[in-house]
Amino acid sequence: MSTEDGRPDGAVRTGVSHRRVLVVDDNAFVRISIRNILLDAGADYVEEARDGDEALAKVSGDLPFDLIFCDLQMPGRDGIETLRGLAGFDTQACIVLMSGEDRNILAAAGRLAKSHGLRILGNVTKPIPAEAVREFLAAANAVVHAPRKRPGGTTRISDDDIRRGLAEREFYVDFQPEVGIADGRIWGSEALVRWRHPEHGLVSPMSFIGVAEQSDTIDLLTDFVLGKALEAQTLWRTQGQDIHVAINISAHSMVNLDMPDHLARIVTMLGGSPAAVTLEVTESCLVDDLSAFLDIATRLRLKGFRLAIDDFGTGFATLEQLSRLPVSELKIDREFVAGAPDNERTRAILEASLQLARSLSLTTICEGVETQAEWNLAADLGADCIQGFYIAKPMAAGELVGWFNAWQMT
Ligand code: C2E
Ligand code: CA
Ligand code: CA
Question: Which domain holds residue 335?
Fold first, then answer.
């Protein structure tokens, strides 16, 4: 059954704004009370879902939601699984996580959701104050109605668009230096893909990597970045520098058993050496399928590539898993570096991660260093290398050697 204007039952329309909200919670009382607050605060359209399956069915409908309140503890598909499903729909909705559990669990779920490319507005512990619901609605409204960079309104990027962009040479690669803490020498550089879109301007990798990962387009992007990285190394060599390069490998590619041979073939074909290439993979690969990861990782190492665990601290790798892996580096996520000098908890995670890496004889790189204080702390805690805006932003291959020469003189 549906209402007069064709909307499904349970959907209510008031006011003049155009905010569509979905409330996902197995507790009817929680759903109804949030819905009432939202409608009072001027939400345009509120739907409810009793569990993750119902939520995903609604999100897959034609009209997108602007805001989703999602409970973490639900029978059946829990909140975390629901978030994973939402990421698959490439939703642009702002998401608020709700839980009766403590703040650390909410924060961890928030990090996980962000790593899936979801737009997390915040999290809130139950019972949820009416004021918080109103504030989230206002914040979502500001995001949804903020002027978009591109004309036409929709921010959706499609797989076809990425393939077209690759064929039209709209993608390029920048390199961000990583320097040794002890001597300030260049340790290597990370290749970061960029897309200059004819309509949308510069599109962040966060907006398109997730889309590419839904198909094998991600492998085309990896090949492209690897090719550009090897081209850059050749250029740097002619400029008198052998510079190591790191490329990001999607968790989705770490199940592809042909990958080690394929990457090695590209490196050989382009006259490079696997020993000068680090492949960065995130902890989520380990959690998804440890045996496939071990198979692929071991063969990559046999072919001479270095392997790094990227965004360390945001996933759930166990000490036992890490100790069994043939990895050479840990890159500690910028979340545990930024602000560590002033935040006890963040600092404790940074310190523990560095100790763990040392006990496993892994090289450590602290990402996202933005201040002298963060540099000093990383040095005091024994990190090997640093990467971040405090040292340099990502730059074109042709600028790196000039930057390095100037850096060494300071
Ligand atoms: P990531 O692997 O963690 O890469 C580091 C990101 O942090 C880069 O963002 C870099 O510009 C940014 N960054 C570096 N230093 C600082 C700092 O001091 N402060 C702050 N706030 N940010 C800093 P970028 O280029 O936007 O890339 C975002 C993510 O997109 C990367 O995170 C990576 O996960 C993904 N990505 C980028 N290029 C590729 C690629 O070629 N393949 C794949 N699979 N993923 C890629
Ligand atoms: Ca990386
Ligand atoms: Ca990282």
Answer: 159-409
Which ligand 1 atom is at minimum distance from the Cα of 394? 11
Strand pairing class (329-332; 363-366): parallel
How remote is the CA of residue 364 from the centroid of ligand 2, in Å? Answer: 13
- Within this chain, do residues 25 and 138 fall inside the same structural domain, yes or no? yes
Query: Where among 98, 116, 143 does a domain terminate?
Result: 143
Neighbours of ion ligand 3 (CB under 5 A): 310-311, 367
Query: Is the per-residue pLDDT at 7 higher than 80?
Result: no
Is the pLDDT at 330 greater than 90? The verdict is yes
Find all residues with CB under 8 Å of 175, minimum gap 6, and list them. Answer: 189, 190, 191, 192, 229, 232, 245, 394, 395, 396, 397, 400
* % of the chain beyond a pLDDT of 90: 55
Number of structural domains found in the chain: 2
Pair (135, 235) in one structural domain: no
- Asked if 332 and 354 touch (Cβ cutoff 8 Å), the reply is yes
Separation CA 19–CA 62 (nearest Å): 15
Task: Return the CATH number at 342.
Answer: 3.20.20.450
Which residue is closest in CA terms to ligand 1's atom 34?
Answer: 248
Q: What is the DSSP letter of 341?
A: G
Reported as a single tens digit per residue, the pLDDT across 231-277 is 999 999 999 999 999 999 998 888 888 999 999 999 999 999 999 99
The binding-site residues of ligand 1, defined as CB within 6 angstroms of any ligand atom, are 176, 192-193, 204-206, 209, 221, 225, 248, 250, 310-311, 334, 367-370, 387-389, 394
Cα-based distances in Å from 348 to 224, 351, 352: 38, 5, 6
